[in-house]
Predict the structure of DUF2236 domain-containing protein.
Amino acid sequence: MGTHAGTGDPGLFTPASVTWQMHGDPMMWVAGVRALYLQALHPRAVRGVLQNSDFRRDAWGRLMRTAHFVGTTTYGTSEAAERAGARVRKIHTMLTATDPDTGERYGVDEPELLLWVHCAEIDSYLHVLRRSGFPLTDAQADRYIAEHRVSARLVGLDPHTVPASREELAAYFEAVRPELAAGPEAHEVDDFLLRPPAHPLLVPARELLWRRVALLAYAALPPYAHELYGRPAPAPAVVTRRLRATGAVLRGIPARLRWQLPPKHILRAVARLGPQARPAPHKVRA
């Protein structure tokens, strides 16, 4: 990767990581929506979200907060990343949810729930980016998963309990499958993602743009997720074509324009470390 022109702190991941290059890709937005769909299939985890936030009014805020956390932990200084992690851990310790069937009250920071949210996110980022044409070898994909033991630690997980390869991640999903279900909360998330509340003037844009993103994210879910939601998806080859086409269009927008969107983590990282810290697919090293 060469040396950094800047003398700033390269952060927890550094420009030498797969994460640094991947997280600058615009398909991360589609991947983030897929993660929400997947996370909603764990009844205990999705209750923790819906019972502690006005998801229907603030889902966009939630997506932006997740994007801000991912941006800060990827491209921020080590101190900023550690601070963001401490803030998330503190919020989680104060939140509980109730199982409506048993009346059981539980903390949203239970390790099994944190692990589910983590794995659903990492799987979604990796799956959507690779399937849409971001060039990664299997070894680099394994490296990406292993790197995210760092983000798992930040949210309060023991890194040694977190999958560190595609094989371990697949085994985790296999083990957790029996616990997954599309309950009322999952359908609430599905309804919301297809038709988020919008100002009347923005409804045409919602139908044209947002709905397309939501449908593509849903289509990119694993087949068992489509079965649980009870909504079919196009054939896998069709979905892959659409992901690649969308990736090609979004990657065609110059990065300097894309990175102007808030919260501008990448621009700040480049200012801190020098121009060669700019993320790009071809910089992923073996």
About this structure: Residues 1-5 have pLDDT under 50 and may be disordered.
